[in-house]
Amino acid sequence: MQIQVDTHTHTYASGHAYSTLIENVKMAKEHGLKMFCTTDHSSAMPGSPHYWFFNNQRILPRFIDEVAIIRGVETNIMNVAGEVDLHPSTYEHLDWVIASFHEAVFKPMDKASHTEALLNIIKSGKIDALGHLGNPNYDFDFEAVAQCAKQHNVAIELNNSSLKGGSRAGSEERCAQIARVVKAAGGFITTGSDAHFCTEIGVFEKVSPLLDDVQMPTDKVITHTPAQFLAFLALRGRAAIVEFDGL
Question: Biological process GO terms, please (predicted)?
Protein backbone atom coordinates (compact mmCIF):
# COMPACT_ATOMS: atom_id res chain seq x y z
CA MET A 1 0.00 0.00 0.00
CA GLN A 2 1.17 3.50 -0.79
CA ILE A 3 2.06 5.48 2.34
CA GLN A 4 2.84 9.19 1.96
CA VAL A 5 2.86 10.25 5.63
CA ASP A 6 5.06 9.02 8.50
CA THR A 7 3.39 9.84 11.82
CA HIS A 8 6.11 8.67 14.26
CA THR A 9 9.67 10.02 14.01
CA HIS A 10 12.36 11.19 16.41
CA THR A 11 15.23 13.67 16.47
CA TYR A 12 18.27 13.74 18.75
CA ALA A 13 16.14 15.78 21.18
CA SER A 14 14.61 12.51 22.36
CA GLY A 15 17.93 11.67 24.00
CA HIS A 16 18.45 8.32 22.28
CA ALA A 17 17.98 9.28 18.63
CA TYR A 18 20.68 10.63 16.35
CA SER A 19 19.40 12.97 13.63
CA THR A 20 18.25 16.56 13.33
CA LEU A 21 14.91 17.71 11.96
CA ILE A 22 16.63 18.95 8.81
CA GLU A 23 18.27 15.55 8.29
CA ASN A 24 14.89 13.89 8.77
CA VAL A 25 13.35 16.21 6.18
CA LYS A 26 16.09 15.38 3.67
CA MET A 27 15.52 11.66 4.00
CA ALA A 28 11.73 12.06 4.00
CA LYS A 29 11.97 13.78 0.63
CA GLU A 30 14.38 11.16 -0.73
CA HIS A 31 11.96 8.43 0.35
CA GLY A 32 9.00 10.07 -1.37
CA LEU A 33 7.13 11.38 1.67
CA LYS A 34 4.98 14.46 1.27
CA MET A 35 4.45 14.94 5.02
CA PHE A 36 5.72 13.65 8.33
CA CYS A 37 5.14 14.18 12.02
CA THR A 38 8.02 15.03 14.31
CA THR A 39 7.22 13.23 17.58
CA ASP A 40 10.00 13.31 20.13
CA HIS A 41 9.51 11.66 23.50
CA SER A 42 7.92 13.73 26.25
CA SER A 43 9.46 14.51 29.60
CA ALA A 44 9.02 11.32 31.65
CA MET A 45 11.23 9.37 29.26
CA PRO A 46 14.85 9.59 30.49
CA GLY A 47 16.83 12.03 28.37
CA SER A 48 13.80 13.75 26.88
CA PRO A 49 13.42 17.54 26.55
CA HIS A 50 11.68 20.02 28.81
CA TYR A 51 8.08 20.80 27.85
CA TRP A 52 9.20 24.15 26.42
CA PHE A 53 10.67 22.17 23.52
CA PHE A 54 7.18 21.08 22.49
CA ASN A 55 5.46 24.40 23.21
CA ASN A 56 8.02 26.13 21.00
CA GLN A 57 7.22 23.96 17.98
CA ARG A 58 4.99 26.83 16.93
CA ILE A 59 8.14 28.38 15.40
CA LEU A 60 8.68 25.44 13.04
CA PRO A 61 7.98 26.14 9.35
CA ARG A 62 4.99 24.31 7.95
CA PHE A 63 7.09 23.28 4.95
CA ILE A 64 10.80 22.52 4.80
CA ASP A 65 12.17 21.75 1.34
CA GLU A 66 8.60 21.12 0.14
CA VAL A 67 7.90 18.51 2.84
CA ALA A 68 4.96 19.28 5.15
CA ILE A 69 5.83 19.23 8.86
CA ILE A 70 3.31 18.13 11.48
CA ARG A 71 4.12 19.28 15.03
CA GLY A 72 3.77 16.41 17.44
CA VAL A 73 4.91 14.36 20.41
CA GLU A 74 5.09 10.77 21.57
CA THR A 75 3.80 11.04 25.10
CA ASN A 76 4.04 8.40 27.81
CA ILE A 77 1.10 6.54 29.33
CA MET A 78 1.86 7.03 33.02
CA ASN A 79 -0.62 4.84 34.87
CA VAL A 80 -3.81 2.80 34.73
CA ALA A 81 -5.85 6.00 34.98
CA GLY A 82 -4.55 6.86 31.51
CA GLU A 83 -2.69 10.00 32.50
CA VAL A 84 0.13 11.22 30.26
CA ASP A 85 3.18 13.40 30.85
CA LEU A 86 2.25 16.44 28.78
CA HIS A 87 2.14 19.85 30.41
CA PRO A 88 -1.39 21.33 30.14
CA SER A 89 -0.05 24.27 28.12
CA THR A 90 1.46 22.01 25.46
CA TYR A 91 -1.65 20.77 23.72
CA GLU A 92 -2.48 24.04 22.00
CA HIS A 93 0.92 24.07 20.27
CA LEU A 94 0.73 20.59 18.76
CA ASP A 95 -1.11 19.02 15.84
CA TRP A 96 -0.61 15.37 16.75
CA VAL A 97 -0.25 13.38 19.98
CA ILE A 98 0.72 9.71 20.15
CA ALA A 99 0.46 7.88 23.48
CA SER A 100 2.59 4.80 24.10
CA PHE A 101 3.65 2.38 26.78
CA HIS A 102 7.36 2.50 27.60
CA GLU A 103 9.04 0.21 30.09
CA ALA A 104 11.14 3.05 31.49
CA VAL A 105 7.97 4.90 32.53
CA PHE A 106 5.15 2.37 32.98
CA LYS A 107 6.29 -0.96 34.35
CA PRO A 108 4.42 -3.80 32.59
CA MET A 109 1.54 -5.11 34.67
CA ASP A 110 -1.27 -7.45 33.60
CA LYS A 111 -3.67 -7.60 30.65
CA ALA A 112 -6.58 -6.08 32.55
CA SER A 113 -4.49 -3.14 33.79
CA HIS A 114 -3.05 -2.42 30.36
CA THR A 115 -6.52 -2.55 28.84
CA GLU A 116 -7.89 -0.18 31.46
CA ALA A 117 -5.06 2.28 30.85
CA LEU A 118 -5.64 2.25 27.09
CA LEU A 119 -9.40 2.68 27.40
CA ASN A 120 -8.94 5.57 29.81
CA ILE A 121 -6.45 7.41 27.62
CA ILE A 122 -8.67 6.98 24.57
CA LYS A 123 -11.68 8.33 26.44
CA SER A 124 -9.69 11.29 27.79
CA GLY A 125 -9.77 12.96 24.38
CA LYS A 126 -6.15 14.05 24.80
CA ILE A 127 -4.50 11.78 22.24
CA ASP A 128 -4.84 11.13 18.52
CA ALA A 129 -3.18 7.72 18.25
CA LEU A 130 -1.85 4.79 20.24
CA GLY A 131 1.75 3.84 19.47
CA HIS A 132 3.38 0.42 18.98
CA LEU A 133 0.66 -1.65 20.61
CA GLY A 134 2.23 -4.87 19.34
CA ASN A 135 4.67 -4.95 22.25
CA PRO A 136 4.06 -8.34 23.93
CA ASN A 137 5.11 -6.89 27.30
CA TYR A 138 1.81 -4.99 27.31
CA ASP A 139 -0.89 -7.49 26.45
CA PHE A 140 -4.39 -6.04 26.26
CA ASP A 141 -7.91 -6.82 25.08
CA PHE A 142 -7.63 -6.15 21.34
CA GLU A 143 -11.36 -6.11 20.73
CA ALA A 144 -12.23 -3.73 23.56
CA VAL A 145 -9.51 -1.24 22.67
CA ALA A 146 -10.23 -1.36 18.93
CA GLN A 147 -13.93 -0.72 19.52
CA CYS A 148 -13.24 2.14 21.91
CA ALA A 149 -10.69 3.69 19.55
CA LYS A 150 -13.19 3.49 16.70
CA GLN A 151 -15.87 5.14 18.80
CA HIS A 152 -13.57 8.03 19.76
CA ASN A 153 -11.72 8.37 16.43
CA VAL A 154 -8.32 7.43 17.80
CA ALA A 155 -5.94 5.79 15.34
CA ILE A 156 -4.05 2.58 16.04
CA GLU A 157 -0.44 2.62 14.90
CA LEU A 158 1.36 -0.06 12.93
CA ASN A 159 5.01 0.52 13.82
CA ASN A 160 7.61 -0.52 11.26
CA SER A 161 10.36 -0.72 13.88
CA SER A 162 8.33 -3.22 15.91
CA LEU A 163 7.71 -5.36 12.84
CA LYS A 164 11.44 -5.57 12.07
CA GLY A 165 12.00 -7.37 15.37
CA GLY A 166 14.85 -5.17 16.53
CA SER A 167 12.75 -3.50 19.17
CA ARG A 168 9.74 -4.91 21.02
CA ALA A 169 10.58 -8.44 19.89
CA GLY A 170 7.57 -10.64 19.38
CA SER A 171 5.39 -7.87 17.97
CA GLU A 172 5.05 -9.22 14.44
CA GLU A 173 2.15 -11.63 14.84
CA ARG A 174 0.44 -9.42 17.38
CA CYS A 175 0.54 -6.47 14.95
CA ALA A 176 -1.16 -8.59 12.29
CA GLN A 177 -3.83 -9.64 14.78
CA ILE A 178 -4.37 -6.05 15.91
CA ALA A 179 -4.68 -4.88 12.30
CA ARG A 180 -7.36 -7.47 11.61
CA VAL A 181 -9.31 -6.52 14.74
CA VAL A 182 -9.13 -2.81 13.88
CA LYS A 183 -10.31 -3.59 10.35
CA ALA A 184 -13.26 -5.58 11.69
CA ALA A 185 -14.15 -2.73 14.05
CA GLY A 186 -14.02 -0.19 11.21
CA GLY A 187 -11.30 1.81 12.96
CA PHE A 188 -8.42 3.88 11.68
CA ILE A 189 -4.81 2.82 11.17
CA THR A 190 -1.78 5.10 11.20
CA THR A 191 1.75 4.13 10.20
CA GLY A 192 4.98 5.13 11.87
CA SER A 193 8.58 4.31 11.09
CA ASP A 194 9.51 5.17 14.69
CA ALA A 195 12.76 6.35 13.14
CA HIS A 196 15.54 7.12 15.59
CA PHE A 197 17.96 7.73 12.71
CA CYS A 198 17.08 9.63 9.58
CA THR A 199 17.59 6.78 7.10
CA GLU A 200 14.51 5.06 8.57
CA ILE A 201 12.15 7.97 7.87
CA GLY A 202 9.34 6.84 5.59
CA VAL A 203 10.57 3.26 5.37
CA PHE A 204 7.59 0.90 5.57
CA GLU A 205 8.94 -2.33 4.11
CA LYS A 206 7.12 -4.30 6.83
CA VAL A 207 4.01 -2.20 7.38
CA SER A 208 2.98 -1.81 3.75
CA PRO A 209 2.87 -5.59 2.99
CA LEU A 210 1.00 -6.18 6.24
CA LEU A 211 -1.68 -3.70 5.22
CA ASP A 212 -1.97 -5.45 1.87
CA ASP A 213 -2.09 -8.86 3.52
CA VAL A 214 -5.00 -7.96 5.79
CA GLN A 215 -6.66 -6.06 2.92
CA MET A 216 -7.01 -2.91 4.98
CA PRO A 217 -9.24 -0.40 3.15
CA THR A 218 -7.16 2.58 2.03
CA ASP A 219 -9.77 4.99 3.37
CA LYS A 220 -9.03 3.68 6.87
CA VAL A 221 -5.26 4.21 6.57
CA ILE A 222 -4.88 7.86 7.49
CA THR A 223 -1.30 7.99 6.19
CA HIS A 224 -2.21 6.87 2.67
CA THR A 225 -2.18 10.53 1.55
CA PRO A 226 -1.67 13.91 3.24
CA ALA A 227 -5.29 14.78 2.45
CA GLN A 228 -6.51 11.72 4.37
CA PHE A 229 -4.29 12.56 7.32
CA LEU A 230 -5.57 16.13 7.45
CA ALA A 231 -9.16 14.87 7.16
CA PHE A 232 -8.52 12.67 10.19
CA LEU A 233 -7.22 15.64 12.17
CA ALA A 234 -10.40 17.50 11.25
CA LEU A 235 -12.47 14.51 12.36
CA ARG A 236 -10.62 14.71 15.67
CA GLY A 237 -11.81 18.30 15.99
CA ARG A 238 -8.45 19.92 15.39
CA ALA A 239 -8.31 23.34 13.76
CA ALA A 240 -7.49 23.47 10.07
CA ILE A 241 -3.86 24.21 9.21
CA VAL A 242 -4.27 26.90 6.57
CA GLU A 243 -0.79 26.43 5.14
CA PHE A 244 -1.81 22.94 4.06
CA ASP A 245 -4.84 24.01 2.02
CA GLY A 246 -4.68 22.17 -1.29
CA LEU A 247 -2.69 19.19 -0.07
Answer: bacterial-type flagellum-dependent swarming motility
